[in-house]
Amino acid sequence: MIARLIETIEIRKMTNDDLRQVIDIENKSYDFPWSEAVIKDCLVNNYDCYVAGQDNIFGYMISKITNQDSHILNLTIDSDYRGQGIGSNLLDLMIKECKLHRSNYIYLEARVTNTIARNLYQKFGFRSIGVRKNYYRNKLGREDAIVYRRNLLI
Ligand SMILES: CC(C)(COP(=O)(O)OP(=O)(O)OC[C@H]1O[C@@H](n2cnc3c(N)ncnc32)[C@H](O)[C@@H]1OP(=O)(O)O)[C@@H](O)C(=O)NCCC(=O)NCCS
User: Fold this and answer.
1) Angle at 11 between CA 70 and CA 44, to 5 degrees
2) Does the pLDDT value for residue 1 go beyond 70?
3) Pocket residues for ligand 1 (CB within 6 Å)?
């Protein structure tokens, strides 16, 4: 039997060697991608950075996990591999890590127009707690961010 891709994908900490592929996926995925310098900074400053994949990277998550509030800053899957559960696996791992670190809440923002991401977060128990007006740049100007919070205490 042929194993489904998702069953064979490893999730591990991001290293410097992954940067090239991570930056390529970032640039492919967004009209206004994070710069290479910002992504490098996250690694250097010990943010909690994960990749899905071994030699070939299918996606990544950049987060900050603490014993109080935790934050998801970037979750991106290569466009060729979306809809196969990889984003869910990264989110699942993040929630488990936060529980291990006794975090109370996880926070993140999503573009109001990003229905796919919003579906994903709601499926994982994130609830909308506010709006940041004109938070993101887009091709037409600006758009709002929805702020989501996942309560880990209940
Ligand atoms: C958002 C993103 C990370 C989701 O990752 P993914 O690996 O494709 O998602 P999964 O396959 O794990 O899907 C999980 C859930 O997301 C939602 N979802 C995924 N693809 C969807 C689609 N095409 N339409 C609607 N909802 C969708 C569904 O709720 C899905 O659960 P279901 O399969 O039970 O219906 C990915 O689409 C992505 O990288 N998008 C571009 C970058 C981005 O927008 N990042 C988020 C910034 S806040």
Assistant:
1) 55
2) no
3) 29, 75-77, 82-88, 110, 114, 116-117, 119-120, 123
